[in-house]
Amino acid sequence: MKKFVMVDSHTLAGTDFSPELNLLSENGIECVLAECKTESEIIEAVKDADGIGLNYSPITRNVISHMEKCKVIVRYGIGYDVVDVEAATEKGIAVCNLPDYCVDEVATHAMALILDTSRKTTLFDKSVRRGIWDSEYGYKMRRLSELTLGLIGFGNTARKLSHYAKAFDMNIIVNDPYAPQGVFDKYGVKGVNIDELFKDADIISIHIPLNDDTKHFINKETISKMKDGVIIINTARGPIIKIDDLLDALDSGKIRAAGLDVVENEPITDPSSRVLNYENLVITPHAAYNSVEASINQHTMVAETAVQVLNGKMPHNVVNRKQLLNN
């Protein structure tokens, strides 16, 4: 019997793994729910696995080197920066993600952060609870229909967000060098270069993957190119923003406010952390993906992906498809 190992099931505590257990079993694949917390534990768990799943545990070159017969690695999410894709490709292992399992949720969360930071709902709530009843408290608010939303990246989530933002009559500009012009036309947005986006956007929402090129993409230099009083939204990956540079810009007023579902060093557990000192910074605990429906889709898609690859197929969500086909 083939074996599929979910290496860090404890990081999805409280979720229902029955979709994997049932679907994999129906296809003659044993599903093991491991709780690996160290690299050595991961190596021991996956050495004889035909496929593995992971949430946050790094699947390094060293881990991959110990995989004796693995054919597929599935990330329980959209980003796959925790997997050494190059090392996996060298061993002929398909690396897969879930590019569309929580598109609605993340786009909704980004829109919620746009509304929150624009209308100061969290800021007002906190001030009222401190006995401050003042509709002018904090920074000035702007009418959304007069603002330009800049989307960095225009994949599935950003496209859904553009649909939501249009309901508020926002002007939308996009930077994505990999997206064809026809996609911009289809969604009624304007494609621009990144410097134009920085110059013209009143609100910037980030929707790009984390890699060597995008780490600290938002930093002191790029922030200096932005409008004074810009609002920054990030539901992608924390390290895309150099957090100290963002906080410095909040101090100076260059950035009016920010809404972050992800931060550079997660989780934030130190109550004295600098990032917690800003009332014009709304932070949520990497929860944008979360809903009952998304969880069902997540677990089902992981199992379906593993079954397809282990049956010799190449599903649409193999991120190293081109490299594998060329080998």
Tally of separate helices: 13
The CATH class assignment of the largest domain is Alpha Beta
Secondary structure class reads alpha/beta
Poorly predicted regions: none
The portion of residues forming beta strands comes to: 15-25%
CATH superfamily of the largest domain: NAD(P)-binding Rossmann-like Domain
CATH architecture of the largest domain: 3-Layer(aba) Sandwich
* Secondary structure: helix percent: 25-40%
* Overall shape: globular
CATH topology of the largest domain: the name is Rossmann fold
Quaternary organisation of the protein chains = single chain
What's the story with the biggest beta sheet? 7 strands, parallel
The largest sheet has its strands arranged as: 8-7-6-9-10-11-12
Radius of gyration: 21 Å
CA-CA gap between termini: 28 Å
Tally of distinct domains:
2
The average pLDDT value, as a whole number, equals 96
Walkthrough of the structure:
The protein is globular. The protein has a 7-stranded parallel sheet with strand order 8-7-6-9-10-11-12, with helices on both faces. A 5-stranded parallel sheet has the order 2-1-3-4-5. By secondary structure, the chain is α/β, with parallel strands linked by helices. 36% of the residues lie in helices and 16% in strands. The longest helix is centred in the last third of the chain and has 19 residues, at 292-310. The model has no long low-confidence stretch (mean pLDDT 96). It folds into 2 domains: 2-100 and 291-326, Rossmann fold; 103-283, 3-Layer(aba) Sandwich (Rossmann fold), CATH 3.40.50.720.
Short recap of the structure:
The protein has helices at residues 18-26, 39-46, 61-65, 85-90, 103-119, 121-129, 156-166, 181-187, 194-200, 220-224, 243-252, 292-310, 321-326, and strands at 2-6, 29-33, 51-54, 72-75, 94-96, 148-152, 171-175, 190-191, 203-206, 230-234, 255-260, 281-283. The chain is α/β, with parallel strands linked by helices.
